[in-house]
Amino acid sequence: MYERFTERARQVVVLAQDEARAYGHEEITTGHLVLGLLREESGIAARILEEHDIDLTEVRHVVCRELGDHGRGATGQIPFSADAVKAQELALREALSLGHNYIGTEHILLGLLRIQAQHTDELLAGIFYEGEEEVIRDSVIKYLSGPKRKPEQEEEDSKRLRIWATCQHPDCTLCVYENYPALRADVLKLLKMLDD
After folding, report:
1. DSSP code of 17?
2. Same domain, yes or no, for 103 and 135?
3. In this predicted model, what pLDDT tens digit does every residue of 112-131 receive, in sequence order?
């Protein structure tokens, strides 16, 4: 599964492990994953969590309150808790349901929110408020869908896409017909779907 993780998503896992190790915790929990998401500041998830006023200091306080601060760093490989494993599996499901072939920080966040919605993790209950998961989930979906585009811009892009996809000239640097025939075929299928 980790081969599908983006570089930032992998970094989230490393940062979660660092958080668990720093506090002497015996396993990486969902709370540590949230800390990892917040510490990976360039990820989509961190931006969305910030928008919802969920900050690193507050989450760290909740994690330490729930799990304790053992004051000694753990050594070696730290395993994931059952809920943390489940959250990563749900991240994969979220990515696939959105048609993505990768797992980014936003998918990890969506996986954690699904755990919260199932009320199986007490630690997440201290981080996300009841019902907040749907609001954050909507923010993630909105962020992934991008800004609204003007109809005339969509029409212009469609024209460019049609020219690119239908060009048969082998030396054309715009269509890259020779180098990416599978991509060209996918674009032609997409255009056909749009026309229908």
Report:
1. H
2. yes
3. 888 877 766 666 766 777 77
